[in-house]
Amino acid sequence: MIFFFFFCRLTNVFDGSFSHVPMVTKLRNGRSVTVNYMTEGQLTEMYCMIQEAAQCGEGYGIDEFESEVEFRMEIKDSDCFSISCKETGELLAGFIIAVSKFYRGHGAMADPFVIVRRTVRLQSLGEFAMRTAIDFATYLGYFGMYVDTFTSNKAILRIIEKIGGFQKVGVLPVGGKLQGGQIVSSVIFIKYLSATKDTMKVS
Ligand SMILES: CC(C)(COP(=O)(O)OP(=O)(O)OC[C@H]1O[C@@H](n2cnc3c(N)ncnc32)[C@H](O)[C@@H]1OP(=O)(O)O)[C@@H](O)C(=O)NCCC(=O)NCCS
């Protein structure tokens, strides 16, 4: 019952203004996937995937989320989406469009959390998830997106390079802690989102 209070807000979802899901599409490898709002159960699955990634030193810090409750609190004003196999319904990947803390106001900059189930990596799901997160953040009216990633995360760095339009804007020498205690640096990118690019001035 406690999760009732930490349920994702799914910002524009419940008022019916976000009409882009459910969306069925084919990946480059021919696999059909459904993108939809994340269910409560899928959110728990995503948390478990993030914890597993953290244990393996992949993309998330070992002390980034102490518990599922803390994870849910962190993303409580976020828009959470699942990418599932169209045939089986299995959750393959997830992406969350959170509000970035690097903007000292509310709601202007998005911060995407992306994860792909370990067993289905290297099948273009990660790139698809990031591209869809960018599209949805644009539809949701974000001005831009900050991506902050460990400098050791070759996969996401490759995805950012492939998608294009990201500018590297900073490095944090102490970005997070890996399993085993090793501190890793983070790199921060910005991407301006097309729908709002011309409506705000950047100095
Ligand atoms: C990052 C992640 C989402 C990538 O998912 P994926 O489905 O395996 O990625 P894709 O198949 O779309 O690969 C996209 C590109 O990255 C490359 N790539 C993927 N994993 C890689 C790795 N470990 N090392 C180097 N390149 C990698 C692919 O080869 C591909 O490039 P190419 O088209 O030039 O061959 C996945 O590894 C993951 O969930 N990691 C843990 C969580 C994480 O790091 N999230 C991001 C936090 S900022």
Protein architecture, described:
By secondary structure, the chain is α+β, with helices and mostly antiparallel strands. The protein has a domain at about 20-145: Aminopeptidase, CATH 3.40.630.30. Helix content is about 25%, strand content about 30%. The protein is built from 4 helices and 8 strands, in the order E-E-H-H-E-E-E-H-E-H-E-E. The chain has helices at about 40-55, 70-75, 125-140, 155-165; strands at about 25, 30-35, 80-85, 90-100, 110-115, 145-150, 165-175, 185-190. The protein has an 8-stranded mixed β-sheet with strand order 1-2-3-4-5-6-8-7, sandwiched between helices. A hairpin with a 5-residue loop joins strand 3 (about 80-85) and strand 4 (about 90-100). Helix 3 (about 125-140) packs across helix 4 (about 155-165). The protein starts with about 20 loop residues before the first strand and ends in an 11-residue tail after the last strand. The model is unreliable at about 1-10 (pLDDT under 50). Bound molecules: coenzyme A.
Summed up:
The protein is 24% helix and 31% strand. By secondary structure, it is an alpha+beta fold.
CATH fourth-tier homologous superfamily of the domain at 19-143: Gcn5-related N-acetyltransferase (GNAT)
Please trace the helix and strand order, writing H or E for each element: EEHHEEEHEHEE
CATH class of the domain at 19-143: Alpha Beta
Largest sheet, order of strands side by side? Answer: 1-2-3-4-5-6-8-7
Q: Structural class, judged by helices and strands?
A: alpha+beta
CATH architectural grouping of the domain at 19-143: 3-Layer(aba) Sandwich
Count of individual helical segments: 4
Q: Which fold name is given in CATH as the topology of the domain at 19-143?
A: Aminopeptidase
Q: Mind describing the biggest β-sheet?
A: 8 strands, mixed
What is the CA-CA span between the terminal residues?
A: 46 Å
Radius of gyration: 16 Å
- Seen as an oligomer or otherwise, the chain set is single chain
In total, the number of strands is 8
* Low-confidence regions: 1-10
Q: Tell me the β content.
A: 25-35%
Helix content: 10-25%
Small molecules (ligands, ions, cofactors) in the structure: coenzyme A
